[in-house]
Amino acid sequence: MENLNLEIVSNTLITSIIKHKSKKWDNLIEDYHNYMKEYIKHYKRSLKGNLVSLSKYAYMKEKVMLIYKLLLKARCKSILTKIQINRVSKIQMKTINAYLKKSKLSAK
Fold first, then answer.
1. Whole-model pTM?
2. CB 46 within 8 A of CB 53
3. Which among 55, 52, 43 has a CA at the least distance from the CA of 98?
4. Are 99 and 108 in contact (CB under 8 A)?
C-alpha cells in the first residue's frame, strides 16, 4: 500500500514538472509569435523607407533568430510536444506567406 501511495505521489510530481516545463516552452513560442509579428511589420515599413522601422527590423530579426534557435534545439532534443511543434510551423508559414505576398506586390 505504501508503494502505491509513493508511486501516485511520484507520478503527480512528474506530471507537475512536465506541465511547468511545457508552459515555459508555450511562453517562448508566444514570444516567438509576437516578435515575428513585429519583425514582419517593421520589415514592410522599412521597405517603404521608414528609417525607424529599419533599425527596429534589425533588432527584431536578431531576437527572432535567437528564440528560433532555442526552439530548434528543444525540438531536436524532443522537448516540444507535437502541438508546440505545429504552432511553431504555423508561425513560420505565416512569415513565408507575408514575404511571398510582399514580393508579389513588389513585382507588379
1. 0.73
2. yes
3. 43
4. no
